[in-house]
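Deviation from plan, reported transparently: manganese (II) ion complex.
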Amino acid sequence: MRLFKSAEEIEDLRKSCQITAWAHTAAMKAVQPGMNEFEMEALVDYEIRKKGCRRLGYESIVAGGKNATCLHYRSNNDTLHDGELLLIDAGGEYQYFSADITRTFPIGRKFSMAQAKLYDLVLKAQLEAIAITRPGTTLPEIHQRACETLVDGLLSLGLLKGTAKEILKSNGHQRLYPHNTSHWLGMDVHDVGLYRIQSEPRPLEPGMVLTIEPGLYTQPNDSEVPAEFRNIGIRIEDDILVTKTGCEVLTRDAPKTRAEIETLRS
Ligand SMILES: [Mn+2]
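Because the crystal trials were delayed, the predicted structure below was used instead.
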């Protein structure tokens, strides 16, 4: 019952996604070097609640700079520095339905060259994964598409060595992309519902809602990563409704191209 959303449930999710998208946009406008992560956490919380969400769907991740390379960072109490990125993973809950959005943007005015290259790659992987999301597609196929795009890009940027085929087979990219691309979304942020039926990946059907959230995370001491690319954590996450003919990005109001983000930061 919870895996397939009714028309009324989709309207509630649409609302939580829209409110959460506005809150992320407000955060992009508001951040300034010298602020603390908890100030940004409070701002997102306020923006979500003031539009009618009664609570958050989960504890927010507000991670500046190297903190974003720690996947489940929850301390949210560090100072934000110019030249670094801020990753916010936060979602409001409206009528018990939770959104789940991640955006990553500069604390200063612009992405550095290295940050921009990794950001554009994550966005490309996300857009390509969204493009194949329709009835019949499976979550492993979506993950595979995201991984293929990331690996191709990481090879050309010099963060991985070898051939794409070998890397994908041996999961050599897991060092930089250590999590999955999707989960079900609804009353719980990781909603209930089987991912496999008789051990086979379950094909998507209209009315299902999932996240698509590729990312890249480079560690400070990773000698295989060129120095300018180290200590960067980027994730871009949207909430996707499967429709009869394709999909609808419920969180489309949250800006995610570099041009849109840098306009908000200027
Ligand atoms: Mn998520």
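The first helix runs from residue 7 to 30. We consider this an acceptable substitute for the interim report.
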